[in-house]
Fold this protein.
Amino acid sequence: MSLLSFPKMPLKGFKPVRVQLVFNHVARLASSKSYDPKSHDESEFRQLEIRPVRRDRKTSSKARMMMPRDYKRTNNIDPDKADWKSIWPGPRSFDPNSIPIPVRQGRLKPYRRAFDKYANMELMKIPSFFHIPPTTIKAQCEAIKSFCTPFPNQLNSKEKCEEHFPLTVITNDYLHSAPTIRDPLARIVTIKLKLKNIPLDEHARDKFMRLVRDRYDDKTDTLTIVTDRCPLRKQNYDYAQYLLTACFFESWTVEDWESEKTEADMEKYIWENNISAKALASIVKWSPDKLGKSIFHDTLPADELKPEHLVLGAAVKKVIEGETEEGIEEYKKAAMEVLLSKKAVGLKA
Amino acid sequence: MNSITCASKTYRSSNLQYFQLWWSKYSSTAAPSKETIKIPNRKHRGPTDILKALETTVSYDFTGPAYKFFDDPFLAPYNDRQARMYSLAKSAGQKAGTWVRDQHPELFTQVISDPPVMSYMPSPPINGDNANEEMLLQKIHDSKVSDAIKVYELMQEKKMDIRQETQLALLELLCFYNCEDDTPMENSAERYYGHTSRQGDPTINHWKNHPLVDSLFSSLKSLGSAPYCALICGLYMYGAKVEGDKLVEEAKEKKIKLDINAYNFIIKRTISIYDKVDVKWQLVQNILKEINAAGLKPNLGTLCYSIDAVSRMGMPQRYQILLQLVAEFKKAGVTPSIGVYGMIARGLVGRTRPDANLAVFLPSILESLKGKELVAEHPSDLLFFDWILKCCAVMEDLPSAINGLELFLHSRNRELLDGYRSTSFFNNFFHVLSKKADFPTLIKYYNLLVPHAHTPSPLFYQVLFDACDVHAEIKSFPTYWNHYMSSGSFNEETLLKMLEVAVNLTGLPDPEAIEMRKVVSESAVNLFLFKMEKEKDNVFVSIPLTHEMCDYLLHLFARGCQWRTIQTCLKFMHEKDFIPDEKAVSEILDSCYDHANPNMAVWVLKFCNKSFSGMESFGRKLELREVASKIMKADFLNDDLKKELQSEFEDSSSSSDSSTSDSESSDSDDFSDSEQDISVPRKPKPDVVKPDIKKIVEK
């Protein structure tokens, strides 16, 4: 049975019995006040009123409006001159009586305006920022200026701030309108650091990455450590400092077994270690007397590497990491430059 | 719902320096090349200093009710009486909660506050097992008098040893509070609206002779000065003069040195001595000399009580004496508090005629205090504003009154007055305003303070309505009407004045006045129906509607086209044997003509002719007929109504000599129940072509 076919009046056949009604009637008969000799002559038989009709209680609603309650506060507020921070000093839900501007909110129906501010539930639901308009912020800043100290002159740019104070510590304070001033979330400490600010060589950096894992964001070069396992903020802060220190020094240590790392264990392609660099070396250093011997040499030392060699290395790396047509083209160009350019040929000659 | 605010704190740290140092050992390139950065030291601040600084940006807002009330037009109080009732009701709820907590401490086992707030927790029950000296000291510290007495008595029963210092502290507590509990600190509403002075009238003996005080005093007599001083202060504070005098003499006989506080109360005692002024002044001087001889350093209390005593004396040279006293105390290192100035001003006003020096003293004091945040140092400081404004009211000095008000509204100075005194303060201010101020000033301060800061008296409203009449203040008149109606204190003259001014203002040939007619007439209907309702319920109406008021109301109803209420009002007047004014009736007829309501005009003419015939002279009747004939000549009435009116007046002229009972009976037939609704002008219904439904459906 679908919802539409649900009967509109499921109890149509039954008549509700109202005990209260009977009780009312008994009370009416019992009280002497309800008996009005004017309306009922003594000779007349009094009627039993199953459903009592209210005759005497004709009080107009207007008569009760003696106390005029309708003068509005907004009439006294001049939006241009009013001291708004005194009228609305703290956060609270929307009050149409105190806000001297016409506000509308609600679903828009065709050819109708949204509902106005009076008795508008939609306006009461949403959080408002009436307690912090720019003028209030200005006044409050002025008031707490006396507690501030001047900012150091030397730190005049963001880069300088980062250079001198590379570590950022973030904590949260919570304020409740409750009897307790504690909040468990206040214990959490976050520290942030740009990795360029700490000295790491290739090996240390690699190891550091393995230790911190997803706490490092390579887009912004930022390391983020969040500590929340201790009950107090101070303890969490100390723990975060300890973690950072431990990771740093651990990454600089080189264990014995690290020398056993083979090409297969490498997590990325390094051209200098690979066969391509050796092949280049053997080609560059080729001489007729080496004919018939192994062409594979050690790689070229760093001071013998020319710019075109490095370009070739980059192109090889690009091809190996992901083969594209452009990559191949680049590789070809770089190889031609190294092997067949006039310079290379001339040198050989 | 708890509102939660989260403040994020982010700061940068240079703790990484040691990494850099470590690195510099290994690498020559990464050596830190740092200029030294000097970071200023943190300024010391308390835990609430920032909140206090933010609070200074918020000033008192008079456009709405005070913060303790609901900011809602239907729940906010609109006069002083309501405000008092609302806040006391609220605090009664709190008191009930406290009572439940104290009666059933076993129900409140959870401690939800952190750090724990002791005043929210039930105090442990006092019984023989846990009563000890530590508990007694705690009760004395919290100034819980009845609890302290209970603990002490339990300890006496168990014959425990109590140190003499503790006994002395208990004696001092009992003397200070007169052996009864004070209104607790957390019950702010009761403290604000309750009795201003715990000590009451110094001329009446309030001293409760608790047996514990005597026993404690007799056991502590050996200590010498301290118990004597405590008891002397207590006795004089609560007006037990005879006992106090005896004790002072006893102390003098035994050559016990009294301390400065005891001397202060001895000075206060001189106020209630019935003697000549010179003798009293001599007495005060002698006491001051005695203090000097005893080598005691006077304090603020000494200054206040001596000024209080001297200012009540009413000597012709009092101004010079008071100033001399203040100057001498200043030399002795006592700076006068504001209460001293208040008492000097009160002394200068006197009972009969104000001193001429007051005209100089009052403005100069207010000028010197301008823009200062005042602090209460002595109980008399709480009366400063009240007395200053009383002086302004006597002198009718408007600039000083305005200065006083500005000082009162500055920062937190308004906390120096309680509910009762602030009503008196504003009453005096409005008195000066009504006597001396010009119309713009009057309106300026009225709009600032009414209705949320103060409810003016009916007498002030009378002045206000008069001023509105003279200055033709049409625009804000309905507001003032509403304010007066909600002020809750009525006065026949003021009500009459209000209606008169309303009639005058709505009658002005001004487009604003014509616009206002509707608003004022609605307010008038409210007023009229409210009074009718009261009369119907047989409630005693303190200010019933008079004949004159009804006439004014008829004018207003006619201008606002309140046809139904006009009918009710005329019937009411008929019941009360009031005869409507001729002008009012003609106003109604004019209005009927203007608003094309011929039925109403005929009804009014007929009703007046029938109902008021018995008690009216013949001349009036002729007038009515004249009006009727005038109306009949115009095109205003249709033929049926014309005939009806004609027959009515012919009937009445023929039966004018017959008895009034006839007219009354016919009247009851015609007007007892107005079944035909003539409150709306009758208009022929235009022929509206009914839309063809079939066509619409097809579309």
In short: Residues 337-436 of chain B form one domain. Chain B touches chain A through 69 residues (CB under 8 Å).
